[in-house]
Design brief:
heterotrimer; A mainly alpha (279); B alpha/beta (354); C alpha+beta (553); A: 279 residues; mainly alpha; globular; B: 11 helices; membrane (chain B); SAM-dependent_MTases_sf (chain B)
Chain lengths: 279, 354, 553
């Protein structure tokens, strides 16, 4: 069960790992016999070897707490080694953010806009965003810049990794929404999609949400930068990120779909974000 | 505890301005088993009966003068705190003994006019005349009077009597009008009272006998002061290593609960000795002996094991069953005795050696 | 005879409620060299300031005991007391001040004859309790059937320092519990007015049979004084004098302060009251519930529900006939808002308080306008969140400890008009309960957070102890006001009260936060204790007051 398994882009390796530690594996059966029910249930809320729920939503993979721990550790190493491994970054986020997704959801519940989002559960795909229509918008509007950003990076809203390991339908939606709105953050702040740009954006998100995954990236990510990049990060980007992240409106509560036709400056002003200094 | 007054007065004699009032200079104490000594006799000029009326009318000057000392006796946390704490068990013991010996049920047949009006539940001792020899500041006497008895308190110390009188005046229950109980304090000795021909239903003397000069004579006089079929209730301290440890070492020197010099171990009397003394000298039949001990955890005195009837006579228990009193009575204890009906002991003042 | 003493017939001042069978006895009138208005000074053995439940219960207990019924007792109350006897409530209306009475309190009320005066239909037995953490969902349940009735509670022995008698038999509570074959309820719920009704009826009865009990109702105490120095040596010189606003002065052997948390008697005795105010208000209300909506066994009849929210615990206590009493401790602002909300929204919010997450409740609190009107549709919002919860609950299979499968309290359908009332919460303990000729009982001595329902029970336990102590000192011939006569009361009550106060205070602080590690730790603890039968048993017995009565010869 070493990290080596994860350094190769090998989805089946993940499945093998899950199989080896799953509910009906030998490991689970023998452990179950050893830890009799009273002992196990006395000081834990649930058995470490049983998945707590069934399948709750499309793409949901229920895993036991033991499997969750293994996955978290493994994906952390892998993501550190290769931050562009999107699936590993996603897995790391999902396995570690359990409690804090709750917090984001609770923050959304405090805001009427956020509540509306939770109730209506809009999804962002290339169809729902009507990218062609957005391309017709005048320059300088949020929608036009957003599409320009997507085209430059040659990505689309559909390439986001779906949520697998969150054991609650509503929280899975929150996680999904968080990922889906990531591109909007780039458009809003003007941060480039480079490693240090991403890290700067993680600092921004950390100041906003307190997600542990953002903290992990914020603290360990810079280790992979060159010293010049690191200098730029901590002198320019990070102060900006902390200041703006903590004072701006909570971006999870923003119904981006309705801001497409507004000029970028107006959006920035209303959300309380200064554009990032260009270096 | 009469001589507490004497001892404290001895200690403070030089400094106190009150020594002018003292007539009775105490003699040095001696061991009980030695030849009988003279009982302490006051000089003839000290008969204070003519002073009684004057004392009754306490005026403001004397209030001020005795106020300070009265505080000492009756201060709840003062030098006599242990006595205050010992009072409820004492009263319980006395009531139990009087109940057992039939004094209370006989009493219900008593009935001077107007006495029956008071509820017996609240005033169980109504109709009884009780003498408290060595009453000190009146701790026991007041409690007995509140339970309805006609109490006479005797003490050889003038200050004690004054204190007791002043304090008694503060409580309207003790004036003999609103309740059946009444209090009377006399600055006399037991012999003088006997000479005047008084006798009582109950005679109590609590922790006095270990302070008197001539315990033998004292017991004789007490016996004569009891009416036939009356009760005699005494308490004192045994002469054991435990009692030395508790009452002198711990209480006086270490914890300073009582003033140093209050007790002398050599004068303590064991239950069997007291038993013999009461039977032979007081001519009363001993009915019960019960120990009492202080429980430091609860901060209260608690009655311990009790011996009734024929078991009182034997000096059982003790160290390996061979000697000394049983553990329950190894320190403070009570003794209750009853005078037989036949008036065999006449009031005989001449038997007291001068 | 000395001029210090004078005798005169006392002119007894009768209260409207009393009737005497025999003439009062002659009494000593207090006089000093300064002339006092003799006609307005009266002498008493016991003056009880405060006619609330504690004060009235003390008067009743003293009047019931053999020796203390001969005492001359006065009870002073600023409000109306005789009204209580005329109390005749409608069956569909309940007062909002409801107390839970432990078996020990009930045993005491039985002893003084009050329990039999009460109407059974307005007394609800509480057979079980469900208590859970609002943040994590960790739950502990108590069931009356599991509580052992016979042996005394170990915790009580430790705290009261009593030497248990060898047979280990509990005397007074034993009567209530029968022979422990049948389980006693955990507590009985009834309105405070109901208990007062019973007490006042008993007091009138005692007066009728000749107990010298004077009730001064609608009378305030203007001042309490005592003499100092030389004057203290005069007859009754050190007795406290209580000056009333009707011109009378009462001189008493023993002054009892049963006058509530801001006790003037306590100030007179210069006893310090230590403690703090919680930044919480308690809101009480009478609710109408729909028992069929509860998922507890027996439709939740006789079950008390308490949920600990970060703002404070919310509790629903069962009454009869589909009614319940609400005690919701929360921030002062929220308490005021709750009072002003329309009934429909208030009920929706109470239902949400027992099921929604603290974050959801926060949003609802914020959506109450300054005039008390909700700014959003409470029902709609709550229904939406409930449907999300229910959906998740139905899909969750948590093995072993299933939070979502726990019993739910009944739904609140209505709130009785004019029963919503907030009151401040505080914790107070006096540095001492007794002084020379002064003793404190009930709230004057100690005040506690209502989360454990112990305040009134502690007061009744104080009263029971004091009545017993007074009886004992009377039978020992002591002056009942002497501090040595009062010390046994203090030794018996101080430590148990302090223990209860301390425990409840710690619980309140522990559950007042939603900080992650604390929530985890307390949930772990709660779940663990829930599985440890003997410890739960001990806790319940401590709360129910099942203990030895002190063994005094």
């Amino acid at each position: 069960m070493s990290a080596r398994i994860f350094t190769r882009t090998n989805p089946s390796a993940l499945k093998q790992c899950l199989a080896r530690t799953g509910t009906n594996s030998t490991l689970a059966r023998s452990t179950r016999a050893a830890t009799a029910a009273p002992c196990a249930s006395l000081f834990t809320f649930r058995s470490p070897l049983e998945a707590p729920t069934g399948k709750l939503y499309e793409g949901h993979i229920p895993i036991s707490p033991l499997q969750r721990t293994i996955l978290a550790v493994g994906s952390a190493f892998t993501a550190l080694a290769n931050p562009l491994r999107g699936d590993m970054v996603a897995a790391l986020g999902e396995t570690t953010s359990g409690i804090f997704l709750n917090r984001i959801r609770d923050q959304m519940l405090q805001d009427p806009e956020g509540r509306r989002i939770l109730r209506e559960r809009p999804v962002i795909t290339s169809e729902t965003m009507q990218l062609d229509t957005l391309r017709q918008l005048p320059d300088g509007t949020f929608g036009r810049e957003y599409v320009r950003f997507l085209d430059d990076q040659q990505v689309s809203p559909d390439t986001r990794e779906p949520v697998h390991f969150v054991d609650s339908e509503e929280l899975a939606y929150v996680m999904q929404r968080y990922r889906e709105t990531h591109d909007f953050y780039h458009t809003l702040t003007g941060l480039p999609v480079t490693v240090d740009g991403e890290i700067a954006l993680k600092w921004f998100e950390m100041a906003q949400t307190g997600l542990p995954m953002t903290m992990l990236s914020s603290f360990f990510g810079p280790l992979r930068l060159s010293s010049e990049e690191r200098k730029r990060l901590f002198n320019v980007y990070v102060p900006w990120a902390l200041e703006n992240g903590s004072t701006s409106k909570l971006l999870m509560n923003v119904r981006w779909e309705e801001w497409m036709e507004k000029p970028v400056e107006e959006v920035q002003r209303e959300l309380g974000v200064r554009p990032c200094p260009q270096v | 505890m009469a001589s507490i007054g004497r001892i404290t007065s001895r200690i403070t004699r030089i400094s106190s301005p009150h020594h002018l009032f003292r007539r009775n200079i105490p003699q040095p104490a001696r061991f009980f088993c030695s030849t009988p000594r003279t009982l302490h006799t006051p000089s003839s000029s000290s008969s204070n009966s003519d002073k009684e009326d004057a004392i009754y009318t306490v005026n403001k000057e004397e209030i001020a003068k005795f106020a300070a000392m009265s505080d000492e006796w009756w201060a709840p946390q003062g030098p006599f705190k242990m006595l205050h704490l010992m009072n409820p068990p004492r009263i319980r013991y006395i009531r139990n003994r009087l109940q057992a010996s039939g004094a209370l049920s006989r009493n219900s047949a008593f009935g001077a006019e107007g006495e029956k009006e008071f509820p017996v539940g609240r005033f169980p001792l109504q109709g009884l005349s009780i003498l408290d020899v060595g009453c000190g500041g009146g701790l026991l006497a007041e409690a007995l009077a509140r339970l309805g008895a006609k109490v006479t308190g005797l003490d050889a110390s003038m200050e004690n009597i004054q204190m007791a009188r002043i304090h008694a005046k503060k409580d309207p229950l003790l004036n003999g009008v609103s309740a059946p109980g009444s209090l009377e304090y006399r600055h006399q000795t037991a012999e003088q009272l006997l000479e005047q021909g008084h006798q009582f239903d109950v005679v109590c003397s609590m922790e006095v006998i270990e302070h008197v000069e001539n315990p033998a004579g004292f017991l004789k006089v007490l016996g004569q002061l009891v009416k036939p079929e009356g009760d005699l209730i005494l308490s004192t301290i045994s002469r054991t290593p435990l009692s030395y440890f508790l009452t002198i070492f711990a209480a006086e020197h270490v914890m300073r609960m009582v003033p140093v010099g209050t007790h002398h171990w050599s004068k303590y009397i064991n239950p069997d000795e007291l038993h013999k003394g009461v039977e032979e000298l007081s001519k009363c039949e001993v009915l019960n002996i019960q120990g009492i001990g202080f429980n430091p955890l609860s901060g209260q005195w608690e009655l311990t094991r009790s011996r009734d009837g024929s078991r009182c006579g034997s000096a059982e228990g003790g160290l390996l069953g061979l000697m000394g009193p049983p553990l329950a009575e190894a320190s403070n204890y009570f003794l209750a005795a009853k005078k037989p009906a036949a008036a065999t002991a006449s009031v005989d003042t001449n038997s007291v050696s001068a | 005879m000395s001029s210090l003493l004078a005798r005169a017939a006392r002119t007894g001042i009768r209260s409207p409620l009393s009737s005497r069978l025999h003439q009062p006895m002659a009494a000593i009138r207090f006089q000093s060299t300064e002339a006092k208005a003799a006609a307005t000074t009266e002498e008493y053995d016991v003056v009880i300031v405060g006619g609330g439940i504690a004060g009235s219960a003390l008067a009743c207990a003293l009047a019931s005991n053999k020796a203390s019924s001969t005492l001359k007792i006065a009870l002073i109350e600023a409000f109306d007391l005789s009204n209580h006897i005329k109390w005749s409530p409608r069956p569909d209306q309940y007062s909002n001040r409801v107390s839970s009475l432990t078996p020990k309190s009930v045993a005491f009320l039985k002893k003084i004859g009050v329990w039999s005066e009460l109407d059974e239909s307005r007394v609800a037995a509480c057979e079980g309790m469900q208590v859970w953490d609002g943040v994590s969902g960790a739950r502990i349940t108590f069931d009356a059937a599991n509580v052992d009735g016979v042996q005394s509670s170990f915790l009580h022995q430790v705290f009261s320092g009593n030497v248990p008698n060898p047979s280990g038999v509990n005397n007074t509570t034993q009567e209530t519990l029968g022979n422990s074959k049948e389980a006693s309820p955990l507590a009985w719920m009834t309105e405070n007015l109901h208990v007062q009704y019973g007490l006042q009826k008993q007091l009138v009865g005692h007066q009728a049979r000749g107990v010298k009990l004077d009730v001064f109702e609608k009378t305030k105490v203007q001042g309490i004084t005592t003499e100092q120095g030389e004057a203290a040596q005069l007859p009754q010189g050190d007795w406290p004098s209580v000056r009333l606003d009707n011109g009378k002065t009462l001189v008493t052997r023993l002054l009892v302060g049963a006058d509530g948390v801001n006790s003037p008697v306590r100030s007179f005795a210069k006893i310090e009251s230590l403690g703090w105010d919680y930044s919480q208000f308690g809101l009480v209300a009478t609710l109408q519930i729909d028992p069929s909506t509860s998922t507890a066994p027996g439709q939740g009849k006789g079950i008390a529900w308490q949920r600990f929210l970060p703002t404070g615990p919310v509790a629903m206590l069962p009454l009869n006939n589909g009614y319940a009493s609400l005690v919701w401790s929360t921030t002062p602002q929220i308490a005021q808002d709750l009072k002003k909300l329309p009934a429909r929204d208030f009920c929706a919010l109470v239902n949400a308080a027992f099921s929604a997450s603290p974050a959801e409740l926060e949003y609802l609190y914020k959506s109450i306008g300054p005039d008390g009107q909700p700014l959003i549709d409470f029902q709609k919002e709550i229904e939406w969140r409930t449907s999300v919860h229910d959906q998740e609950a139905s899909q969750t299979m948590v093995r072993g400890n299933s939070f979502q499968g726990e019993a739910k309290p009944p739904r609140v359908v209505d709130v009785q008009e004019n029963t919503r009332a907030p009151f401040p919460l505080r914790m107070r303990n006096s540095s001492s309960y007794v002084e020379d000729r002064v003793v404190l009982v009930g709230d004057a001595a100690h005040t506690v957070h209502p989360l454990a329902g112990q305040g009134l029970n502690q007061g009744l336990a104080d009263v029971e102890c004091l009545a017993r102590v007074v009886e004992t000192s009377l039978l020992s011939g002591s002056d009942i006001g002497n501090i040595h006569s009062l010390t046994p009361y203090s030794s018996e009550r101080f430590l148990p009260n302090l223990a209860m106060l301390g425990t409840v205070d710690k619980l309140s602080k522990l559950y007042n936060t939603d900080f992650g590690p604390v929530v985890w730790a307390r949930s772990l603890g709660l779940t663990a204790v829930d599985k440890m039968g003997p410890i739960k048993n001990e806790i319940m017995r401590f709360a129910m007051g099942l203990e030895e009565s002190p063994n005094r010869p």
